[in-house]
Design brief:
Distance between the termini: 67 Å
Structural class: alpha+beta
InterPro entries: OSBP_sf, Oxysterol-bd, Oxysterol-bd_CS, PH-like_dom_sf, PH_8
Region (Disordered): 171-203, 506-549
Bound molecules: cholesterol
Radius of gyration: 25 Å
Protein name: Oxysterol-binding protein
GO molecular function: cholesterol binding; sterol transfer activity
GO biological process, one term: bile acid biosynthetic process
Shape: globular
Length: 595
């Protein structure tokens, strides 16, 4: 078969042929597959015979997917919300096959809603375009009636045009709200039944104190399902989208600086590693630690963290875990959060740099920063990359998070062993058994496998090659009332707590003093919204003043250096705990960030 052939030009019939499909795992890369597009449903298999035999791999309704096409590279990206497919033309296919495919897809889609061609800014080629089709669940109810008129789709199409800018809004880089967003929230407030007016009668059990720390937040999370993200963007068409502020109701009362410290929840795995003589076994524990940092994702897809302001700091002293952690927002554009934790058993540091890739219905968060861990007992310095986090169905309440990709852990001070971990991309949506699967191997210098482990990032990791095969990590049980408290674990609930013992020791730049976040935590959403605008305005004023004076912001506790591989990284300058001790932050000059 020399590519896809259209059987009938007027009424699209069956369209089939070979295409190359991108695969993440196993055997990452482009693979030749036989595709059939039949009545708007796209299926594929290895060969035509397999299709006939019913060995079909996916059945994707193209009318519900967002398609972006790059004619130059002959590539199509199909985002169905739950799944993301990348295909391109086979070397064997003829040039205009892509045109045929697009025509066919357009034909099917147009029965549901009109389609428009727009350019995708994430694509360098001018020739690339994107067809957009909304499904009902992603469409804010208010606009449903408008959906029938072409203009709305036009506008959404325009919205996709600015894919990069919008994605930045997830991390909310720079915001100002001149756009009457409050109108959006109020005019569109149609709270879903059942979630509203949750009374704050906490049962006694959940009120019980753990470690003397709070086990509930002062107020329940408020339902934000009525906030149509698409509506917000729709109402801001024509404006500079990077300046569209998202309503605070989309936020959880934690900042990204606090969020990153959650990766240390299972730090006891590093304590074990620092007492494990066998380097290969030690690696198994370091690997389990790197996986444990992803466990929060099954509970946290309804809210997003606050984007820290430049110069904001956060400390987290965990005597029970034996470590202390500091973080600082060191850059605003691009947003960069640096952090450092130390204990008798390890040091941990990283700076968070990430890029967003927007595919129409899903956002992929690609982190480029490396995580570093040193273990003093053995002089090890481990370094690893992060997996990709994907927010599927970002505009809908059926939003879900997935991690995928390979992580490689290296010991920079000794190359006798390395570890490869694969976060398996789910191949069949809804297959609960293979959900969130993780597999890993510890290899020696010669590439021989010495340990094997596996499991999932939400349920735990088992290693059967250890002297006694065992579960090496399991997430803590989630409190029963998690839904009422932003999906927070017990650990997360403690992060923003302002206990009397630290109140006078913290620098005023600490996230715990951020007033809008505190108001949100107290359930005062409207006031929080107002305060957030003021804080963001103050940040802009400060930047303007600095630019005028020709000055540049200098982070207080972190410095920029170059790592062993020539990458730019932010590391601690070692002053935080010294200043805290003597003379104390009350007697130093501090940035004034809040209002
Ligand atoms: C529209 C909103 C309400 C949907 C929710 C978005 C949430 C799930 C998004 C917004 C910002 C995202 C975070 C941004 C940056 C990072 C750093 C990276 O190294 C790991 C993933 C992590 C920590 C992301 C996890 C997912 C995240 C928290």
């Amino acid at each position: 078969v020399a590519g896809m052939s259209l059987v009938n030009n007027t009424v699209p019939g069956i369209c089939e042929g070979f295409l190359m499909k991108k695969r993440k795992y196993p055997l990452r890369g482009w693979h030749k597959r036989y595709f059939v597009l039949d009545k708007g449903v796209l299926k594929y298999s290895k060969t035509q015979q397999d299709i006939v035999r019913g060995k079909i791999h996916c059945a994707l309704d193209v009318s519900l997917a967002v398609m972006s096409v790059n004619r130059k590279s002959k590539r199509i990206d199909l985002d169905a919300g739950d799944s993301l497919y990348h295909v391109k033309v086979c070397i064997c296919t003829t040039k205009n096959v892509i045109v045929v495919v697009i025509d066919v897809v357009n034909h099917y889609s147009s029965s549901g809603c009109p389609l428009h061609s727009v350019s995708l800014s994430s694509d360098s080629s001018d020739e690339s375009y994107c067809t957009v089709c909304q499904d009902q669940q992603a469409t804010p109810s208010q606009d449903r009636k408008l959906n029938r008129t072409p203009s709305v789709t036009d506008c959404t199409a325009e919205y996709f045009d600015a894919s990069e800018v919008i994605c930045e809004n997830l991390s909310e880089n720079e915001t100002s709200d001149e756009s009457g967003l409050s109108n959006v929230t109020t005019s569109n407030s149609e709270p879903e039944e059942g979630h509203t007016g949750v009374s704050s009668t906490n049962d006694l059990a959940s009120n019980a104190q753990v470690n003397g720390r709070r086990s509930v937040l002062p107020a329940h999370s408020t339902d934000n399902s009525h906030i149509g993200i698409l509506t917000i963007l729709y109402n801001n068409i024509g404006k500079d989208l990077s300046r569209v502020s998202m309503p605070v109701a989309l936020n959880e009362p934690l900042s990204l600086l606090q969020r990153v410290s959650e990766e240390l929840e299972y730090s006891e795995l590093l304590d074990i590693a620092n007492h494990t003589d066998d380097p290969f076994e030690r690696m198994v524990y370091v690997a389990a630690f790197s996986i444990s940092g992803y466990a929060w994702a099954s509970w946290r897809n309804r809210y997003k963290p606050f984007n820290p302001v430049l110069g904001e700091t956060y400390e987290n002293v965990r005597e029970d875990h034996g470590f202390r952690y500091i973080a600082e927002q060191v850059s605003h554009h691009p947003p960069l959060s640096a952090c450092h934790a130390e204990s008798d058993n390890f040091s941990f540091w990283q700076d968070q740099r990430w890029k967003n890739k927007f595919w129409g219905k899903s956002v992929e968060i690609v982190s480029t920063g490396m995580v570093n861990v040193t273990l003093p007992n053995y002089g090890d310095h481990y370094e690893w990359n992060k997996a990709v986090t994907c927010i599927h169905n970002v505009f809908s309440q059926q939003r879900s998070l997935e991690h995928y990709g390979d992580i490689v852990i290296r010991n920079l001070n000794n190359n006798e062993c390395t570890c490869k971990i694969t976060f398996v991309k789910s191949r069949y949506w809804g297959d609960e058994n293979s959900k969130n699967e993780v597999q890993g191997t510890v290899l020696d210098r010669a590439g021989r496998v010495l340990h094997r482990f596996g499991g999932s990032w939400h349920e735990g990791i088992f290693c059967d090659t250890l002297p006694n095969p065992q579960c090496i990590w399991k997430p803590n049980p989630q409190p029963d009332d998690y839904f009422d408290y932003y999906g927070f674990s017990q650990y997360a609930r403690e992060l923003n707590e302002l206990t009397p013992d630290i109140k006078n020791k913290l620098p005023p730049t600490d996230t715990r003093f951020r007033p809008d976040q505190r108001l949100l935590e107290d359930g005062k959403v409207e006031e929080a919204d107002k305060r957030k605008d003021e804080i963001e305005e103050k940040q802009r004023e400060r930047r303007k003043a600095m630019t005028k004076k020709g000055e540049e912001h200098v982070p207080r506790f972190f410095v920029k250096t170059i790592d062993h591989a020539g990458r730019e990284v932010w590391v601690t300058n070692g002053t935080y705990w010294k200043i805290r001790e003597n003379p104390g932050f009350a007697s130093t000059e501090n940035l004034d960030l809040w209002c």
